[in-house]
Write a structure and sequence with these properties.
heterodimer, A: alpha+beta, DNA polymerase, domain 1, 5-stranded mixed β-sheet, B: alpha+beta, Aldehyde Oxidoreductase, domain 4, Aldehyde Oxidoreductase, domain 3, 7-stranded mixed β-sheet, 17 helices, 25% helix, globular
Chain lengths: 154, 779
Amino acid sequence: MKEISFMLNDEPRNVQVEPNEILLDVLRNKLGIKSPKCGCERGDCGACTVLLDGKAVRSCLILAVEVENHNITTLEGISRAKLSALQEAFMEFNSFQCGYCAPGIILAVTELLEKNPHPSLEEIKESIAGNLCRCTGYTPIFDAIMSLTGKGTK
Amino acid sequence: MKDYKYIGKNVTRIDALDKISGAATFVDDIDFGANLLYAELIESTEASALIKKIDISAAMKVKGVYKIFTGKDFHNRFGLYMKDRYVFAQERVRFVGEQIGAVVAFTPEAAKSAVALVKVEYEPLPAVLNQMDALQSDAPLLHPEVENYPRVPWFYPKAGTNIAHWRKTRKGDLGKGFAKADVILEDTYSVPRYAHCALETHIAVAKFDHSGRLTVWSSSQSPHTQRHLFAEALGLSHKDVRVITPYVGGGFGGKAGVTMEIIPAVLATQLKGYAVKLRYSREQEFTNTYQRLGVVAKIKMGATKDGRITALEHKLYWDAGAYVEYGANVVNAVGLSASGPYCIDNVSIDSVCVYTNLPPGGPYRGFGYSEMLFGLESHISRMAQQLNIDEVEFRRINAIKPGDETAYGAKMNPSGLQDCIDKAAAAINWGKKPVSEDPTKVIGQGFAAFWKAPAMPPNASSSAFLKFNEDATINLLISGMDIGQGYQTVMAQIAGEILSVPPAKIRVETPDTDRNPYEWQTVASHITWSCGNAVKNAALDAREQIFSLIHRVYHYPVDVLYLEDEAVKCKTDSAFILPLQNFVVDGIMTEDGTFKGGPVNGCGMFMPEFSSTKDNPETSQGGHPNVHYTVGAAALNLEIDKETGKMKLLKVALAIDAGKAINPDLVRGQITGGLLQGLATVLYEDMRFNEKGKLLNPNLTDYKIPTAKDVPEEIIPIIVEVPQPDGPFGARGIGEHTMLPAAPMIANAIEDALGIRIKSLPITAEKVALTFLQEKAKQ
């Protein structure tokens, strides 16, 4: 066991972790952060996506010890004050169905819009190509994002 | 048409805030404290074998292991429609991945390490890995005792064979029908198995407490059905079994009925006081839950030169897997409906459910109709070609109309099939296909019509409790599952419309069988219709209580009262406006200071009392097994690279008759989602088994489901509304149907573009390119 400290949703946290423990398990089981989901345990599905220093990463492929002194943001952090414009757009366009992939996809797109506020449809597709959604057919997700970039029509 | 306030409106989903804020709770998000045990399964490595010995000695030495259970500890049999499964294998395994036992440990790591140390000795038996082999007279029998299994009265197993059920439907005179035909076409089509791939894997946590009550938290489409099967298998009273089902991370049929959930439930009874969790890995999700059944379909169709189908012979042989307790009903459903959405005078259908040494087949969005329609709608397109009639016109000529007789003799319900066909064709400019500017590419147009009925027992029912709160908000207690389709929102819209309460003021929670009233299951695309009727009845019950109270206190006749803007109003006295929040809990104070009334709680239920499965087993005539059909049609423009076979979906239109779209945006959501799931079964997905029955691609790297980059360039969702007379506000289900036309429509477009006919799924780029090359070589 090793104690690590890092910023979680803008709050300093310390936690004891095993050297082989993945970030996803530590967030969910030791820190009570439940929005990142496990869908495949091998980086295929993107349901466990979190932001590491603003970059979308799969928390099932990252060891907890690696985030020492870094910033981790999850959907809980994004939602704390008020919903983001992206979350509002997801509500308006029904960009989710079962909701299992939504936390990961919202974080992946949050990173995209941070870097590129006016992405093309191709860039949007590329940014979430690693996040699987089995319910929506993705189109309502594109619509929500396009509505924010001024290029979309409902 | 009546002007509604909430029905037919794009009301915001009432689960939206939960799901986009990260607050939505799924089973694995619940903490169970220090008394939690983790179960891991000991799984068969053989497709067919006797278990000679299970050595757990090394596994028991792993630190943290608590107990190990096998088939010797539990002999409970279970199953939804036919009890052919055991919780743990009893001396014999029938597919690779079948559960032989479970290790229970204090950490998941200990459980996993111990499972690897369990030694199972097998005596291999011959295995049958496809249904055509299993039908041979000398094929090894999977279930020699099949005829003795308890089952529903509409299943007909054949003793001494691998046939678990055989649905026969006969109408008219097939010989005469073919004699009248000018063109007869006969061919065979095949469809492999597919996986649901819900993003959340199966999970269940069970606790048998010291008072002797069993609580199971599960990711399920079927809380009450699970409670019933647990009670039945374990010999417990229903009141002592409680199933709690939080949000479900995708179902698609895979989480209907009972599969792995019974394992922690049974284990818990021997682990009193502990909670036992079983969470499937992605690999287990592929190998030991339901899979979509494979099928080989032989079709012979005859038609006159003016385009009238005179006869259809349709034989479907299903690869149903090692246990068919649910899958046999897929076979049954198709056996009744394999005429497709056409009125044909002479029909013979044989739908045969065959045991194989592969994982259990079961419900998957579409319930067999996707598989059946691949052959039938391919065949329709080819018949039209041979008759030299446009294939859309050929469908129009034969499309079933309201009042027409189905193959089993019941009358067709009101439906807008012609309208769907016309609108889908018009949306892509049928007959005027674009020409690719790239000479290496060619564009084809494809079309398919579809129908599907809910497959359910004749007495499948729904019920609803509706409780008013002090501020006239409502808690609606129902037991269907919002598996993503938007069920909770639609139910709130129905209650809200009748009671004049905005859906945003109605809370619908996920079910708990202790508190929420009975619902059969969230399957069959029947929930909007069935539970919608129950909710409507509960709201009407509450309204009646409100009006009767107002009558008692203010003496207005009940028939002049109405609800509007969360208040009671009176047609004959416009000054009378009584807000609901003034009285729906506290009652109304009268002149002497006493109160009349009290909390308003509505109650409603629905059961289709006209439905019956009682029929002649040789013909299927005489019953009314299907409550109604939902119909539709789809069309697409498909661009194909002639060299690589790579396909691009340029424009896809899907028209569906929703009866009444209670929330049109949610209907469109089902179209965009279901369509892509269907297209993927054609273009990307395919379960590959080796010669020993082991699945070769049990992960999302090798079993490709579509990503954001695989979406058609344009999707045109079209809603048609011919009301269902017994539906809430005319609504009928549409969820599964949006998958149905994908496969034949693509096969038809490929023939249109390249002149090649592909008769087996999937239709990958590789298969298109190779088939095209072979055809060119022949010329």
